[in-house]
Specification:
Radius of gyration of chain A: 22 Å
Shape of chain A: globular
Oligomer: homodimer
CATH topology of the largest domain in chain A: Metallo-beta-lactamase, Chain A
CATH superfamily of the largest domain in chain A: Ribonuclease Z/Hydroxyacylglutathione hydrolase-like
Distance between the termini of chain A: 6 Å
Number of strands of chain A: 18
Strand content of chain A: 25-35%
Number of domains of chain A: 2
Mean pLDDT of chain A: 95
Chain lengths: 305, 305
């Protein structure tokens, strides 16, 4: 398993007894991320057994309450639990001042270092990059400054094809790093052995695009092109397309259109308006345009293998 | 029913799946109050069917997260639900700036007026007073500035004893208001008819004292004397009295001692530390000092008749 998404909450606006605002837990290539943090996120993390200590990076799309008001409680709880590791929070400009003010007023002086990465660009930018994963912003259009996030695994090192390598006693263990790095090998005889012969092709890196909240925005298509999994908000059905336009949200059809045009492999919908009692209608509507459509619900896990 | 308390949450520190931080809903003489507002309060209000529109006053004891971090979400939700009535929030100095900053950063511009009553006195003061109810602060001692609250019904108007009044044809309807106001009546003959004869004694006004969070603090006893119901925090059992002292919390025994010395009618305990799996131990410990001890649990309703 290289990519696994757990839905912690997926409803819009106000929390209800069994409807939690947006939050997701992403495991990708041994990295563990929280994406958005509506009120109650820490409780949902406990419910679905997300280890608090695994989380080192939190990504906040925008500062509306249903994506943000659970952050302060989570950070405070990390402090109460004596966290010592540093924690990185990515989110719109202003998030640092607001969060620090709340922590100060509550005198929640934690031992761990809280590092904010404030975002303000309207262009896609690389905001996280290590040897395993990269994260780019996906500029969205909503009533406040908003980014989606594109999480991509790095190319994995090639594995050695030991049986084929055994056919060339001239190849030394010292060459293995070069082979893993994708290089051909030149034998003392001058013969060139192609890298393909000496390695087992590694799994294709996986990617996940998170897009919430946003109006219908085709400009994101080049950024999310060919993603393995796309989460796209679908606050309304097409019967409320006017309201979607007015509130800068999307309909299920619009999300499906983006998924289709971007040639993603799977689409998962969420951020349903409370006016719809039957969320299956979202899936039905989207499937007429893009068949590989799933519905977010609390506790749902989507694995990309 | 003149006083009814609904426990929305009653655990300390960090929310867990079935443990919600402090919040209570108090109905007293047709007034409807929320007391403290830990994360998830709005969800608990929905769960226990507390009508959002009934709430016009919220009292926050102190700004630790487990009593405060649910306020912003609730206020924001009131806005989303198009509340128009003004809302009063009582709490420590600083609550206004923090709350307004969060509402601004989320661009949660509601139509209703939000009126803050910031508290900073270390003496008990009258902070709410209308024809039905009064509320006084109860200065507490905790790691940050903290108040408890004493909610008291006003004396109810006396009811006319129509049968006895019928014995005196000289008494006119115009006298009824005077009788209800407690005055004796002088007949044209000069005879004085005592008010007791002409009225039915009204129910004694009820009172509720809310004390959380605090160390053991006998100075509150004169303020809460003879209350019908006392909620007092009991974060620890006596086995952790040292820890209670260090963290400025109370033990179950200490809460019971306050209840006994203040001669209250009933004590309800809460704010249990997560280290105790069996909350019944709190009741057992307290009952050795004060027998009329109840345990708070989410959804529990205590009526004082």
């Amino acid at each position: 398993m290289s990519l696994r998404l757990t839905i912690l909450g997926c409803h819009s606006a106000t929390p209800r007894v069994n409807a939690f605002p947006t939050s997701q837990y992403l495991e990708i290539n041994d990295r563990h991320f929280i994406i958005d943090c509506g009120e109650g996120t820490q409780r949902q993390m406990r419910k679905y057994k997300v280890g608090y200590s695994k989380i080192n990076h939190i990504f906040i799309s925008h500062l509306h309450g249903d994506h943000f008001y659970g952050l302060i409680g989570l950070l405070s709880t990390f402090g109460i639990l004596n966290r010592e590791k540093e924690l990185h929070v990515f989110g719109p400009k202003g998030i640092k001042e607001a969060t620090e003010m709340l922590l100060n007023i509550s005198q929640s002086h934690a031992k761990y270092e809280l590092i904010f990465h404030e975002l303000s660009s309207t262009k896609s930018e690389l905001i996280f990059d290590d040897e395993k994963v990269s994260v780019h912003t996906i500029p969205l259009r909503h009533r406040v400054y908003t980014n989606g996030f594109l999480f991509k695994e790095k190319e994995k090192p090639k594995k050695l094809h030991m049986q084929n390598i055994g056919n060339y006693p001239e190849i030394d263990k010292a060459d293995y790093l070069n082979i893993k790095a994708g290089r051909d090998i030149v034998l003392p005889s001058g013969e060139v052995i192609s890298n393909e012969e000496l390695t087992i092709a590694s799994e294709k890196p996986k990617s996940f695009a998170y897009c919430s909240d946003t109006c219908f925005l085709p400009s994101i298509i080049p950024i999310i092109k060919n993603a393995d999994l796309l989460y796209h908000e679908a606050t309304f059905l097409s019967d409320k397309e006017d309201l979607a336009k007015k509130t800068l949200h999307s309909t299920a059809s619009q999300a499906a259109t983006i998924a289709k045009e971007a040639n993603v492999k799977q689409l998962i919908l969420g951020h349903y308006s409370g006016r719809y009692k039957n969320t299956e209608l979202f899936q039905e509507e989207a499937k007429t345009i893009f068949s590989e459509t799933l519905l977010a619900e609390p506790g749902k896990i989507i694995e990309v293998n």
